[in-house]
Give the backbone structure.
Amino acid sequence: MSLLIKKGRLIDPATNYDAVVDILVDGEMIKKIAPKINRSGHELIDAANKVVVPGLIDMHTHLRQPGREDEETIQSGTRAAAKGGFTTICCMPNTDPPIDDPSLVEFIYREAERRGSVEVLPIATISKDRAGKDLSPMGRLKKAGVVAFSDDGDWVADSHLMRRALEYVKMLNLPLISHCEDRGLSQDGVMNEGYTSTILGLQGMPKEAEEVALFRDLALCKMTESPLHLAHLSTAESVELIRKAKVSGVRVTTEVTPHHFTLTDREVKSFDTNTKVNPPLRGSEDLEALKEGLKDATIDVIATDHAPHLVEEKEKEYNAAPFGIVGLETALGLVIKELVQTGALTLMEAIAKLTINPARILRINRGLVKEGAKANLTIFDLEKKWLVTEEEFFSKSKNSPFLGWELPGKVEWTIVGGKVVYQDD
Ligand code: DOR
């Protein structure tokens, strides 16, 4: 089976390439990239006036399987990923049971193979049972195929355990992903601590809960020289701390979510629980600092933190609702609307943070378009507007603060290993 993608504008940040070309896909691989390839004998995709990029990679997805298949499954989550233009997603291990054993890693690979639309790369826990007490069997988990370790949802508060974990990931050459939050400070908070939380009478989570944790993690990263990745940054001070650490040579990488560079804590005034995320939405000065951090490469990656929750759960009062929103299907649109169309990032810079940068951090051979590489490709219309609606989400959960928004950047085709796994109708 050969597939010819005709006249698309190929943007490949791995080689800083931006030109209109034809791409011939043969089987699973990219066979040829050239200004003009003869169309006869191939199945055709007319990509004229469309943008072709390496398949997007999300290094922070919650798929909820095993344990909460009512919220999401590998099947539904990967369909949502394909619709959002993602060809590779990494699933977080805060499942039930948590992914802390090779048999569970195997289960995820098998289920993704059987029912998944896109590639799923499992992340395993740092600590056994995510309890923060003992290390998970990291060596065996690597052998089983995990691409990173994280206790996401919780910070590893025990500094000795974190030091040991960092020493192991250095040996294993895999990144450790930290959720920076000192629970002693954030306690039972439900939103950012500040003027809005005071007005609303909701318990706040101070920015320092993230910054204190991040400071300790940076110190241990410097000490161990291990590959540390900091998840979902949310404050201006966090960006500044990382900027300084990077300048001084600390081997740290970072990510930000689309909701943190799009929304502020003022949105919580609606009491819409789809504004309840962890870390919480912060102030406008934080949002601006995140954008600056993206621009000057302090922030390497844009990741969704896709966190599906049932309507019934999210419909509780603000204090009782769970943290998290779905993000796979709105990420690209928000990146284009909030970062590219505002001039905060060039399209090349934005796509790098969704492709080659996460691929490098995860040490996976993905995120680039070249002859001989696996044909994972995303084709989208940069200008075409579309409406975010519950009905059109492929995710099992609908908890998005962006329902009713009009976004640019409609994904038209998503291709994984030469196979069309999503096509817009
Ligand atoms: O908002 C969030 N939801 N943040 C997290 O760290 C965890 C996630 C979840 O699993 O629901």
